[in-house]
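Hi W.,

Here's what went into the run:
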Amino acid sequence: MSNSNLTRRGLMKTSAIAGAGLALPTIFTASSASAFTNEPTGGTVTLGFNVPQSGPYADEGADELRAYQLAVEHLNGGGDGGMMNTFSSKVLQGGGILGKKVEFVTGDTQTKSDAARASAKSMIEKDGAIMITGGSSSGVAVAVQGLCQEAGVIFMAGLTHSNDTTGKDKKANGFRHFFNAYMSAAALAPVLQKLYGSDRKAYHLTADYTWGWTQEESIAAATEAMGWETVNKVRTPLAATDFSSYIAPVLNSGADVLVLNHYGGNMVNSLTNAVQFGLREKQVNGKNFEIVVPLYSRLMARGAGENVKGIHGSTNWHWSLQDDASKAFVKSFGEKYGFPPSQAAHTVYCQTLLYADAVMRAGSFNPCAVVEALEGFEFDGLGNGKTLYRADDHQCFKDVLVVRGKENPTSEFDLLEVVEVTPAAQVTYPADHPMFAGGALGNCNPGA
Amino acid sequence: MDAIILQILNGLDKGSAYALIALGLTLIFGTLGVVNFAHGALFMIGAFCAVTLQRILNISFETIDPTRTDFLGNPMKVKTTYVETWFGPEVGASIIDWAVPLAILFSIPIMIGIGFIMERGLIKHFYKRPHADQILVTFGLAIVLQEIIKYFYGANPIPTGAPDVFKGSFDFGVMLGFDANAIIYPYWRLVYFAFAAIIVGAVFAFLQFTTFGMVVRAGMADRETVGLLGINIDKRFTIMFGIAAAVAGLAGVMYAPINSPNYHMGMDFLVLSFVVVVVGGMGSLPGAVLAGFLLGILESFASMNEIKSILPGIDQIIIYLVAIIILLTRPRGLMGRKGVMED
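Here's what came out:
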């Protein structure tokens, strides 16, 4: 200490400068007096697209990004307008949002909750994103939704199917257009009963995380209600790649239906393994053994090749739908990119239009005004028929597609065929349903 | 009983993959003294050799079929493969069908080439550096290779089927006197096990019965003395690196029909293969093979519902648990020699 050059005067000077420095941010915020986080001031508004650009879901992320770019193009008046022409709300006219040109930044979720939060945070704080949207995993959706609630921006969820996203983890600033596990179960159960009867023994293999658990719970409840027995529920690690040791016990379990609560690479491998082990040719209890994949993704189904043929599941949307909206979307996406869009692309395109439309109707970018405009909003013309954004939990209620792996595909995209369009009424549940209990929306947070 | 037999079979084919990768790792470690974390990536590249050959065989030209339309309502473009036009539809279709076995021939030169380039171009410069540096550089290389594959082939798994003759499964139940359908096992997994056994046998025979192998074994025991005898041991070790890469590649080629290849499949196997090498004993080739099968079978048993109901989650930790027990009782691994990595 004897060599220290620190004097009393010097210390005072340094502290004064440091103090002024610390106070600076508050001085700025006080003078700019914005009403909410990232209020757009210039002629542009920035949206944050947070999708998996690396990691196992990168291909779905890439398709989401294509749809976002298409949506931005349409919002700014480019292209053929896509589903803006069929959307029941007519306030979007291709002049940006509230006269501001739409720009976007992208982040990479890597399908990891911490990475997704970090990229969302960076887009909000550095790039001034007014809204965050995207994702291809329920774990990520729940994490980013929580972050957006704290930061005071709107979160328009991408591909997330867990009940929890609009159940126990719902947030006032978060909205989900995609369907959920309960809806899959409610749509699938009657079809399964018609096809396979009401005396069946089901064996569940479930990916061990939030989405897998809620889907297993939903499917088991719906099938048990129609008389099926659940023989066993086996959790498989998310990182599992070879499912043979989980498939083998199914052979002698007495079960005659295998339910694969798997997604992505898990689904591709578990389904491939199940088919390799001859489950589909097997006879149990005098019946044909059946496999069910409750959540189908066409992009992922490609990885399983021929093994998907004849296997039933559900999906949020499919490009082969023949309503005007779906046709318009497939046309503008197909002409721009040369192949039909996936359900992930469809849901994020819808989410972008729905957000823009809500801002226009509210006349403000203020998240609380947007929340108010979206709550209880009824619309049509986005490819799923009449749809309601329910105010109680910010979940969209719309028709659900039951699909089947096609026996004779005519092209590499033609993998699934729609078996039944289950009406929204059949998949609607009360807001206080026990599978969705435990959380509260809370109040909208405008931030700042 | 039937469930136990089934899990042993399961363990054998999982163990085959572990054993083949671990064998290559041990070859490299034993000869060059390098801990090669890029070995899983070589396995993955092998699987992508099968994917690539399948794609090459499926290269096709487009003709327009005005009677059908595509998803946008335009006339459908129908693809016909060149192979089918050259060899006739039947022969052509069966050539495409046999893409995976054909890829064995296709992959050997590619894998040996990649092995040479890796060793001469990068790993050579790290021989005199600490093991930590070698691990870092090979791990980095693995990530680079992985991202290159992802750039060209995408992130989704790519279905690569076995030939039609090997589809379906074999009924052991009838053969062993159990009920029909009690023990059925996919043909291709049996092929995989047999293939692994042949490769392991071939590598051992090569090291045991050829002059080249003898020199390599001598070099593994005492590199300096062999060098002083006027033998260019470095060149032979480079060749061994190529062979090790080919072994990993072949394991990958044949694995493609079991699980659709994706860019991170190498990493999934890498960590386990290292555990296999350590359990088997660093530098011991028979140890690597033995430990590969042992851990494969144990992992399968741990996934049985009867065992999981007593010890939930055991399937996820069993390999590490066994590794700890073996290393506590036999610190050099099952068949480890004295003096390896101990100086």
